[in-house]
Amino acid sequence: MSTPPQPKSVTKNTILVCSCENSIPLDVDAISENCSPDTVKGYRNLCRTQLEDFEKTLQNHDNVWVACTQEAPLFLETADELGYAAPNLNFVNIREQAGWNRDNKTGKPSPDLTAKISALIAESRLDIQPTPSVSMASSGVLLIMGRDEKTLEYARQLSSRLDVTVVLEKPENTAMPNIIDMPVFLGTEPVATGHLGQFSVTFKTSAAYDPTARDHFRFTDNEDSSVFDCDLILDLRGATALFTSPETRDGYFNPEPGNPAGVMKAMLELTDLVGEFEKPKYVDYQPSLCAHGRSGIVGCSLCMDNCSTGAVLENGEKVTFDPYICAGCGTCASLCPTGAAHFDVPGGDSRIERLSTLLGTYRKSGGTAPAIVVTDNGYGQDMIHTMARHTDGLPANVIPFAVHQVTQTGLDFLLAAAAYGAEQIFMLLPPEKAGDKPALETQTALAEQILTTLGYGSGRIHIIDDPDPEKVAAILRQPADGAAMPGATFTGRGRKRSVMNLALGQLHKNAPTPVEYIPLDPGAPFGTLHFDRDKCTLCLSCVGACPTGALTDNQDAPMLSFTEDACVQCGICKNTCPEKVIRLEARISFASESREAVIIKQEQPFHCIQCGTPFGTQSTIDNMIEKLSGHAMFQNPEQLDRLKMCADCRVTALANEENQPMALGDVPKVRTTDDYLREREQLRELAAADMKAKGLDKPN
135-278 and 281-343 share one CATH topology? Predict the structure, then answer.
């Protein structure tokens, strides 16, 4: 029987590591030194014969970490019996992720293994910011689409738990049941929108069933289009799914109708989808950083082009992310050149912080040649467990890094990992994500080009899509070629662009061949702009179009400046420029001036020839005169002089010009009612005087 909880006498953190019956060689003293000032205790069989020690630890410590995930349910149950707060009990896996590998057959812990265990523990100690979420509600309104009697049978099975409506697509031979206890309709060519709790399905034609039908379903002749609103959809038509990437659309199920096991699995899941649900808000989008477009000119559409679910939609000059449809693949964030789309699972800067902690602790603890293997929490973690139990396991220097989806791995992560000291970066891509591999390869190729040019060698980054655990284990054991990586200690906070610039600076600082420029292929998110200064009129339309602030002006004088570090090569400035004087060049510059605003062109302001007010620039006025000198309205010097005047003086000149087309002459005085009454009275007086003069005012 468990002892009752006792008052905690000491406020401190304790880490319990277990050798799992000596199957994991542990150097507890070294781990304790690496994890100082926390207390580290070593055990041989903590989950069974030494469980009482676990109970005593809970009674005397505020926060406890257990280096075992397999037996977490047992430890949580024990803590619950003791009244210990579950949030203060944490777990980390050092067995499958570290200890179980062929390098430890001697029974003695290698320095790399000890460093790796210390790194995994340090990562688990981080205070990770929670992921934002959105709410969805379902009241159980289910639309079932199918073609035959089996559709009706499945509907009857679900009708006791859900509010079911059936729409049959081709029911020619569907027998009429004895009792129809749910709405049944005919529907063709369905088109669906929405998400869990808010689906809307529009049928091109729809009709109610005829209750007088004798043997088979017959439907009324009134076939009009109709819309069905529902919370859930079970699609048993065996046709093309209503959504792209249907497996990611919460609340929509389209199992193969001929697979009863698949249909039953979908039905079981449907019955659980009643109530309120929280879904991670995967992407944090900042419109101010977006380079999608300006003034009708499109610059970047990578997020929309590569979204498999249709969650990214155009919204004028920006885009919108539908958090209810987004499946969290992270491809949009990995490709976004500015960081406007930021993958927010978990929230904040925790991903780069975890990376820094893992690699920093590993190196500080004496580990050598660290490598990172990026996995998701499903397929990737299962692969690691399979390798640990049935193959040689993870090498001691290969540190697992779990993310929501491997496809969220972008250039910022790859460069940061290399700068923090990762000799190699492996990514375990699940088979179902094969369609997202090209986007991942784009980021990988760019990172490899940067590392190779700086002298670190090639072949540092690998995408592994082989499902064979033994082949995966063999790939992970391939040594890296080339110079050692930096092992930098910078703090990678902020959006994507900030992290990339910090990482690039560290990679260049420690590079075997620190070149000043790295030429890149067109389309890369780094580069400079070349201007034909003689033809530039300083109209500054490019400044207003630039989404990142790489192009700036000066409020006090006509001036155009460019900061290369901020340019993402979106091309909006080039397409906006009326004089077509801008050319793009994709490259990475490590020159100091790339981080500064370099003046491209500046002029003294042109002064109005009438009042002296500064407006425009000399080149702008000269350009206008050159282009308009042949126009019919500017055939003499006086007319051309109007182009050299400010707006006020130009209007005055037009008004004073002889024979100018808008001249009105003298403006007549406005007449009022009093004017008309006065004139009428004057006319009466004149008439009376005239009659008097003629003697017509006397009676006959």
Answer: no
What confidence category does residue 633 fall into, taking pLDDT thresholds of 50, 70 and 90? confident
Pairwise CA distance, residues 569 & 302, whole Å: 13
Note the pLDDT tens digit of each residue in 182-198.
999 999 999 999 999 99
**Cβ proximity of 433 and 464 under 8 Å:** no
Query: How confident is the model at residue 660, as a pLDDT?
Result: 59
Average pLDDT over the chain, rounded to whole? Answer: 90
Assessment of whether the complete model's pTM goes beyond 0.70: yes
How is domain 135-278 classified at the architecture level of CATH?
Answer: 3-Layer(bba) Sandwich (3.50)
Using CA atoms, how far residue 422 sits from 168, 343, 416, 426, 462, in Å, is 57, 22, 9, 10, 13
Contacting residues for 425 by C-beta, under 8 A, at least 6 apart: 371, 372, 374, 414, 417, 418, 460, 461, 462
Contacts of 383 (CB under 8 A, 6+ apart): 375, 428, 469, 472
Could you say which DSSP state residue 641 is in?
H
Provide the pLDDT for residue 10: 41
Euclidean distance between CA atoms 21 and 71, whole angstroms: 14
The reported pLDDT for the residue numbered 667 is 67
Average pLDDT over residues 654-662: 66
Q: Dig out the tokens for 571 from the structure.
A: 């091309």
Domain 519-602, CATH 3.30.70.3270 — does that match?
Answer: yes
Give me the residues paired with residue 18 across strands: 43
Its CATH class, for the domain covering 281-343, is alpha beta
Contact by Cβ (8 Å): 569, 523: yes
End-to-end CA distance of the chain: 143
Token pair belonging to 413: 């992560």
User: Using an 8 Å Cβ cutoff, are 284 and 132 in contact?
Assistant: yes
Domain coordinates in residue numbering, the chain: 13-91, 135-278, 281-343, 350-515, 519-602, 606-656
